[in-house]
From TrEMBL:
Aminoacyl-tRNA synthetase keyword on record: yes
Name of the protein: tRNA glutamyl-Q(34) synthetase GluQRS
Transmembrane intervals: none
Keywords, in A-Z order: Aminoacyl-tRNA synthetase, ATP-binding, Ligase, Metal-binding, Nucleotide-binding, Protein biosynthesis, Zinc
Organism expressing this protein natively: Devosia honganensis
A molecular function (GO) term: ligase activity
Pfam families (alphabetical): tRNA-synt_1c
Length: 282
């Protein structure tokens, strides 16, 4: 049997912090226990926020943690063609439609929130006729493209996925997916021909990823990923969700909240052993 492949896929939109260190170390530890290999992937579809210097810092930080990976490293910014092809498949199934709504439009009409707490898209543009859609696109109106989740589920039926935990060597368990709680998610943004949901599913399949280790904050997103895998005829994946590191305020560590970066901790004299002790303490 071939060695199972896992991956760690950070976004170079800021420096790595302790939470990223935990996720990386969990992935490499799982790969070792499974007799597999951990890959590094750079998720840099955000052209405005992702910077080459952050990518370089990711390599430096991971090497400092004692981690290595096979080359070459996959970079999502080089794979827009693959994402467009996957989106075309969904469009040909009648499952992708243009959405012209702004965030303000959605917030004003939303009823409820998605699992991340964002206003739940009410399906406004799903009801537009083909002629109106084409006219608005012809006028140059910016559009993002959404998955018609209800129609997608009518095609696939009930969905489930395999979860392993709390240890990566535990017996697998079956969990049912609930993509409907996300509403019609964006699969192609206005600025790039993909989104996190679409690119991660396409890339996991392209790299032959068998096991995905991810933080519990991404557990709910797995519902959408399983749905896309089924629609696109992609292999099933086993998932392992690890706990999150939290700050003194009880919130998860975050780049946007200024959590200390690994580089800052290193400059303060921290060693890899200090990082491991801090992670275990949390």
């Amino acid at each position: 049997m071939s060695r199972p492949l896992l991956r760690f896929a950070p976004s170079p939109n800021g420096p790595l912090h302790l939470g990223h260190a935990l996720s990386a170390l969990v992935t490499w530890d799982a790969a070792e226990k499974l007799g597999g290999t951990a890959l590094l992937r750079i998720e840099d579809i955000d052209r405005l926020r992702c910077k080459p210097e952050f990518t370089d810092a990711i390599f430096e930080d991971l090497h400092w943690l004692g981690l290595d990976w096979p080359e070459p490293v996959m970079r999502q910014s080089e794979r827009f063609g693959a994402y467009r092809a996957a989106a075309r498949e969904l469009e040909e199934m009648g499952l992708l439609y243009p959405c012209f709504c702004t965030r303000a439009d959605i917030a004003a009409r939303a009823e409820g929130t998605d699992p991340d707490g964002a206003p739940l898209y009410p399906g406004t543009c799903r009801h537009l006729g083909a002629a109106e859609r084409q006219a608005r696109l012809a006028r140059g109106e910016k559009a993002q493209y959404r998955l018609d989740t209800g129609a997608a589920l009518a095609r696939t039926g009930a969905l489930s996925f395999t979860v392993i935990g709390p240890s990566i060597l535990d017996r697998p368990q079956i969990r049912y997916a609930r993509p409907e709680r996300w509403g019609d998610v964006v699969l192609q943004r206005k600025d790039v021909p993909t989104s996190y949901h679409l690119s991660v599913v396409v890339d996991d399949a392209a790299q032959g990823i068998a096991h995905v280790t991810r933080g519990r904050d991404l557990e709910a997103a797995t519902d959408i990923h399983v749905l896309l895998q089924m629609l696109l005829g992609l292999p099933e994946i086993r998932y392992h969700f690890h706990p999150l590191l939290r700050g003194a305020d009880g919130e998860k560590l975050s780049k946007s909240k200024g959590s200390p970066s690994l580089r800052q901790l290193r400059d303060r004299g921290w060693t890899r052993a200090d990082i491991l002790r801090q992670i275990r303490r949390n």
